[in-house]
Amino acid sequence: MASKTDKLYKRYIESEIGTIRKDWRGRIRVALVYPNTYHVGMSNLGFQTVYRLLNEMEHVVCERAFLPEDNERRSDRIRTIESRRLISDFDIIAFSISFENDYLNLLSIIESAGLPLQSSARGDPHPLIIAGGVACFINPEPIAPFIDCFLIGEAEPLLPRFFEIFDPGADKKSCLKNLAKNMTGIYVPAFYKAYYNEDGTLSSFDPVCDVPAKIKRVILEDLSIIPTCSAILTPDTTFPATFLIEVSRGCPHGCRFCSAGYIYRPPRFRPFTLLEKNMEDGALLTNRIGLVGAAVSDLPEIKKICDRVRQKDIRVSFSSLRADALSPELISALRQGRVKTATIAPEAGSERMRKVINKGITEEDILSAAETLVSSGIPNLKLYFMIGLPTETMDDIEAIVKICLQVKEKFLESSRSKRHIGQITVSINSFVPKPVTPFQWVPMDDVRVLKNKIKKIKNGLKRVANVRVHADNPRWAYINALLSRGDRKVAEILSLAHSNRGNWAKTLKASPVDPGFYVHRDMSVNELLPWDFIDHGIKKSFLIREYKRAKANRTSPPCPMDSCDVCGVCKKNL
């Protein structure tokens, strides 16, 4: 990483937090690792938050490490950014994992650290390997054999308790047992055993010692207590020199494909007073502010935020805006931020499919949003769609083409007055069934079928000027589905893929474990799922009800965000 980055790091962290410590004596040493490159890791606000939280603890010193860039030698031992020490020299190697597709990188990093891949082969001289992040508290099982301990839930309430209990001088097994018995949200895979039926489904998942049978997810119930902002500003990220501020967690709309709308329940928003202070702090460092959340436009005091932006010489961007929530204040803030490209996510082309997924926006909302954005001086649009959704037909695929053409028509009407025609980018992503959603039971579409659907969309739009279609590779979506819905047996496939240097085609062909069992099987709502041992507070009956409503093309109202017993979360957490 660039020297510019380190200078920014030292100026901000040393002056504002005072956490760089050259003296390790008497402190727990943590190597915080993001299993991807520096650019990707430092773009992740969750990773930065964990880094700040750990360095605010007087008895902890935390340094960052990343997967080497392509132009660096990946065979070299991985060292931290701050002191260039080997990560194997630390008491703890802590992985922050957001995406399942980074699982192979995790294995590469463990191996390059000179450590055995399997947790069972690592002893007391080795660092404790822990993992957290959203991928871990959705379904940790595909990487369970490689990790000593998972932290299931949000970092703010988990980390202080963990480092109260953790004893670097204790032997590994007794330390882990102490954590598992005395701390909510701790999952130690070695203390649990999976049993299988003859058909390959789980028959039971049981503790093998005196630890909880279910792991309760831990959340920060009151977001007004702790701000979540960038700890380090760097030009080497997706959002260069942008001060990121998390405004909310969770989403009230309940789109049935989206795990964020369920695992982060109940939806929580930060108050205006705290966000205003965060923006003032960020404005001292940069004129770029990024507001982050699953549904930023749902922030109750978003109008106040936009008014404050107009009074300041800052450029603000939003991570997510709904097509039915583009207020004049939001448009004004986008204009002031000199945003060149705005995103609309219809997800599906037909009204029927939007009911199936419970998207909650209409064709009129989509077309109106496109017209409003372009007429307000934002020249380019991105449209996000998913293919392979449950109950989807080719008519629904044709509807994607149709609505893109309608958006193009509105786009042209609004662009003519500006005497400049921008570009529409249509992004096509393959649906991947995710745990802890109403669609967790459904199979993924066949790769060949998905490719045909992509081809149909591209053919329908290829002669349309100023429209570009970008589609993901369905084969990668297949891998993502395997890692999302897998159990511990999938760790064997990961190990084989690691041995094959990431050659998934060779791996899947030679695998003794059938990947199709996890990707293409229509799971029964009555079977035990690999992630069912994690208690997110959501009643399974609620997810089943939503699944049935989806198949009947019926929508459900948004989460009321107060104490009710519809999904079960508020009853358990409030």
Summarize the entry for a quick read.
This protein is α/β, with parallel strands linked by helices and 574 residues long. The protein is built from 21 helices and 19 strands. 36% of the residues lie in helices and 15% in strands.
Whole-number count of domains: 2
CATH architecture identity of the largest domain: Alpha-Beta Horseshoe
Helix content: 25-40%
Radius of gyration (CA) equals 24 Å
Keywords for this entry:
globular, 2 domains, pyruvate-formate lyase- activating enzyme, alpha/beta, 15% strand, 21 helices, 19 strands, 574 residues
How is this structure best described in words?
Helix 14 packs parallel to helix 15. The radius of gyration is 24 Å and the shape is globular. The strands form six sheets. The chain has a six-stranded mixed β-sheet with strand order 2-1-3-4-5-6. The protein folds into two domains: 3-216, no CATH class; 243-485 and 537-573, tm_1862 like domain (pyruvate-formate lyase- activating enzyme, Alpha-Beta Horseshoe). It has helices at residues 3-17, 38-41, 45-55, 103-112, 134-138, 155-165, 172-182, 260-263, 272-283, 302-311, 328-336, 351-356, 363-375, 394-416, 447-461, 474-485, 490-499, 504-510, 516-519, 540-551, 569-573, and strands at 28-34, 60-66, 92-96, 128-132, 149-151, 186-187, 192-196, 202-207, 215-216, 243-246, 248-249, 268-269, 288-292, 315-318, 341-347, 380-387, 424-430, 467-471, 534-535. Strand 17, helix 15 and strand 18 form a beta-alpha-beta unit. The protein is an alpha/beta fold and 574 residues long.
